[in-house]
Specification:
- The chain is of the alpha/beta class.
- 31% of the residues lie in helices and 23% in strands.
- The chain contains twelve helices and 21 strands.
- The chain has helices at residues 15-26, 41-46, 48-67, 81-106, 157-160, 177-188, 208-220, 312-327, 356-363, 377-381, 410-422, 427-432; strands at residues 6-11, 31-35, 109-112, 115-119, 122-125, 128-137, 141-143, 169-173, 192-196, 224-226, 231-236, 243-247, 252-255, 257-260, 264-266, 299-301, 341-343, 349-353, 366-373, 387-394, 400-406.
- α1 runs parallel beside α8.
- The mean pLDDT is 97.
- The structure holds NADPH dihydro-nicotinamide-adenine-dinucleotide phosphate.
- NADPH dihydro-nicotinamide-adenine-dinucleotide phosphate binds at residues 146, 173-179, 181, 198-199, 204, 230, 261-264, 310-311, 341-344.
- NADPH dihydro-nicotinamide-adenine-dinucleotide phosphate binds next to α6 and β17.
Length: 452
């Protein structure tokens, strides 16, 4: 291996790149990682972490009101956007430092700068050429804003984390994870919030009940949702500093901020990948096989840049697989079945396994258990918020194929049920499990009546 400067050179120190680099180093490889922007990638800097902090902040917006039902008299609370942004930035800085320490502690050489490929075994960074036996592309993705007239006036989630002022009115475009999360965040922080979505159901890749139930809850909390609607053009408002978004059909919506959450594209431009002979998909994603090897045998890729499952824990798992296969015992592959996920909208959504439609298509005969109810907590708050729980069960084997919910702490609840599904739990075993009372999660082990 000594013919190369390093055994592994990772481009991109985000979740997946850092995990693969650290693990490879632990297995004895000589590893370097290059990062041009920020340590920890999207998750730490412009994704999961700041989003969840904002989401916590937004929840307080209604918690103060809810507290009154429990006897707390709270003077009209005031919200300080600048304090939130500053505190969030401080936490991110701390995490950036943690990542630097983790890499350093593992013996990974961290190079700050933009690395590009010169050939199958060589990267260039700041005019230096460095050779590596393997090169790992872990450059992640970047938000996509459709090129409509006035698109430059809109922001993406990247900028939403650093707005100088909290807008008074916001339009959020899209119906996926980021759109519903940010619409909930803005709404919770007291911003007049409108969601504009071209389709008819939010979160369309998930069980149909989740998106429709979530939409009703979000509307109940004050988010306006325009379905079958899209913005054709954005212009500055003639009168003041606001924006005017013209919808297909001619209607116009006014706002101070238009935020696009219309998907993310792999970061592969200008990396020299084509030059090195790496095949890219039409989306720009690096095409890899089940071992994350690209069309160039020495070049691997993982995480958002391969555009499979855009989730941090998936990138981490892919990083372990790559490191283990290149420098460990090998034989590892990635299991993409039953990946649980949560959407931190308000209320939260949590889901694992097959949707009703997927289960029907794959197994034919299925049983459904569905329950919606007002949780105990809100009996005193009077918020009217409802929770949805749903189980999708294969009729013949009684195996639980999907667990879906909309409600508080959905991610915390679904994480445990994901283990049960991995173990192949049956409805009978769910029924044999004693509930924890009084919780909302107990509903998942106490539903007895089939609803479909
Ligand atoms: P998604 O792919 O989830 O959603 C994109 C949305 O934008 C869809 O509703 C899509 O509509 C709509 N859209 C796409 N193109 C256009 C267009 N040209 N005009 C109008 N609408 C359009 O992407 P996100 O940006 O929300 O998130 C990216 C990924 O990041 C997620 O898929 C997820 O994997 C990850 N993520 C995970 C989070 C978590 O774990 N909690 C949080 C945030 C992101 P249509 O449905 O009609 O195609």
């Amino acid at each position: 291996m000594a013919q190369y400067d390093y055994d592994l050179f990772t481009i991109g120190a985000g979740s997946g790149g850092v995990r693969a680099s650290r693990y490879a180093a632990r297995l004895g490889a000589r590893v370097a990682a290059a990062e041009e922007r920020y340590l920890g990638g999207t998750c730490v800097n412009a994704g999961c972490i700041p989003k969840k902090l904002f989401s916590y902040a937004a929840h307080y917006g209604e918690d103060f009101g809810h507290a009154a039902g429990y006897g707390w008299q709270v003077a009209a609370p005031a919200f300080d956007w600048h304090a939130l942004v500053a505190n969030k930035d401080r936490e991110i800085e701390r995490l950036n430092g943690v990542y630097a320490k983790l890499l350093g502690g593992a013996g990974v050489a961290l190079l700050r700068g933009r690395a590009t490929l010169a050939d199958a075994h060589t990267v260039e960074i700041d005019g230096r050429r460095i050779s590596a036996r393997y090169i790992l592309i872990a450059t992640g993705g970047w938000p996509v804003v459709p090129p409509i007239p006035g698109a430059e006036l809109a922001i993406s989630s990247n900028e939403a984390f650093h707005l100088n002022e909290l807008p008074r009115r916001v339009l959020v475009v899209g119906g996926g994870y980021i759109a519903v999360e940010f619409a909930s965040i803005f709404n919770g922080l007291g911003v007049d919030t409108t969601l504009v979505y071209r389709g008819e159901r939010l979160l369309k890749e998930f069980d149909a009940d989740l998106g429709s139930f979530l939409a009703a809850q979000m509307q109940h909390k004050g988010v306006r949702i325009h379905f079958h609607s899209n913005i054709e053009q954005i212009a500055r408002d003639a009168g003041g500093g606001g924006l005017r978004a013209t919808l297909a059909g001619g209607a116009a919506l006014e706002a101070d901020c238009v935020m696009y959450a219309t998907g993310r594209a792999p970061n592969t431009r200008g990396l020299g990948l084509e030059h090195a002979g790496v095949n890219l998909a039409p989306s720009g994603a690096v095409v890899v096989d089940s071992k994350f090897q690209s069309s160039v045998p020495s070049i691997y890729a993982l995480g958002d840049v391969i555009d499979r499952v855009l989730l941090t824990p998936v990138a981490l798992a892919e990083g372990m697989v790559v490191a283990e296969n290149l420098f460990g015992a090998g034989g590892r592959s990635m299991d993409y079945e039953g990946i649980p996920t949560a959407i931190f909208s308000n209320p939260n959504v949590g889901t694992v396994g097959l949707s009703e439609a997927q289960a029907r298509a794959r197994y034919g005969e299925i049983d459904l258990y569905r329950s919606s109810f007002g949780p105990l907590r809100h009996q005193l708050t009077g918020s009217g918020e409802q929770v949805l729980m749903k189980l999708v069960v294969e009729r013949n084997t009684e195996r639980v194929l999907g667990v879906h919910m909309v409600g508080p702490d959905a991610g915390e609840i679904i994480q445990g049920f994901a283990v049960a599904l991995k173990c192949g739990a049956t409805k009978r075993q769910f029924d044999a499990t004693i509930g924890i009372h009084p919780t909302i999660a107990e509903e998942l082990v106490t539903m007895r009546e089939k609803t479909g």
